[in-house]
Specification:
One of its GO terms (molecular function) is RNA nuclease activity. It holds the Pfam family NYN. The structure is a single chain. By secondary structure, this protein is α/β, with parallel strands linked by helices. The protein has 7 helices and 13 strands. The chain folds into 2 domains: about 5-195, Rossmann fold (3-Layer(aba) Sandwich), CATH 3.40.50; about 210-275, OB fold (Dihydrolipoamide Acetyltransferase, E2P) (Beta Barrel). A 6-stranded mixed beta sheet has the order 5-4-3-1-6-7. Strand 3 (about 55-70), helix 3 and strand 4 form a beta-alpha-beta unit. The chain is globular, with a radius of gyration of 19 Å. Mean pLDDT is about 85; it is low at about 195-210.
Length: about 280
């Protein structure tokens, strides 16, 4: 492994959730991004760029950082674990994430310099990561920053990649360009997409079907709580949207619900409607 092209993938969890939503609900592929398949796409990219044997292009580190509400969704935790992704939970403060950029940047720097890594893939678009990217490049690490291709009109809720961060990275391949080789019949690695129930696009650009999740936050006496869906995204839920006769639900309750993945104007989280016990 000493001479391998070692790749580290570092996920800003909230940003990646929007990318996955974009592919599932807006993009013609109408499927969610597979973590295993994405990692293989990155291996193929490094193999193509360097000319090194595919077996020597390895994802040796993968980390996912996100603010999480009390009890994370077990199903999504299993997805992360199966893909070899280390989850880093940060507490929410007043329902908002704090410190994700600092934690992710520190993790990326420490792993890149200690493993060491030859490639760092930053799955984010936040300008706060610009100093990290610049410092890694100066240290001789290649920084890859996947971006959403402007060839397709992205929805208003899709976060854009900050220009300073683009400028600091070594390469900014479009997600679609990373995924395109898998469309060939002779592609030898895993597909970068997975189709899940409720994950195909409707004419309105939102998945059909009901979503699945777990109540992960509801304090006694409060009129609202939070649901974490099976991919780890957080949803606001009002007591008014619960089954008749219920004004709150215990943490850990499995539910199904509907609602667009776009947060209402002025709000951080999308809202769950028509909540039912699963």
């Amino acid at each position: 492994m000493g001479n391998d092209e070692r790749i580290g993938v570092f996920y800003d969890g909230t940003w990646f959730a929007y990318v996955s939503d974009y592919y599932a609900s807006v993009h013609p592929r109408a499927a969610r991004v597979s973590l295993d398949g994405f990692h293989d796409a990155l291996r193929w990219y490094v193999h193509t760029v360097t000319g090194r044997p595919l077996a020597e292009c390895v994802v040796s580190e993968a980390h996912y950082v996100r603010g999480r509400i009390e009890t994370p969704a077990v199903a999504f935790d299993a997805v992360l674990a199966a893909a070899g992704v280390v989850r880093h939970d940060l507490p929410l403060h007043g329902g908002k994430e704090k410190g994700v950029d600092v934690h992710l940047a520190l993790e990326a720097w420490v792993r890149a310099t200690s493993v060491p890594l030859r490639w760092v893939v930053l799955v984010t678009g936040d300008a706060d990561f610009t100093p990290l990217a610049a410092r890694l490049v100066a240290h001789g690490v290649r920084v890859v920053l996947p971006v959403v291709d402007g060839g397709l009109l992205a929805p208003a809720w899709m976060p854009r990649t900050a220009a300073p961060l683009r400028a600091a990275a070594s390469a900014t391949p479009a997600f679609e360009d990373l995924f395109a080789p898998a469309d060939r019949a002779d592609y030898p690695l895993r597909a970068p997409f997975v189709r899940t129930s409720g994950g195909w696009a409707s004419a309105a650009g939102e998945p059909r079907g009901r979503r699945q999740g777990t109540v992960t936050g509801w304090k006694p006496g409060q009129a609202h709580g939070f649901i974490t869906d099976i991919r780890g995204a957080s949803w606001f839920v009002s007591g008014d949207d619960l089954p008749e006769g219920s004004k709150s639900l215990p943490v850990g309750t499995s539910v199904s619900f509907s609602g667009p993945s776009t947060p209402p104007v002025g709000h951080r989280y999308p809202r769950a409607y028509a909540v039912q016990l699963a």
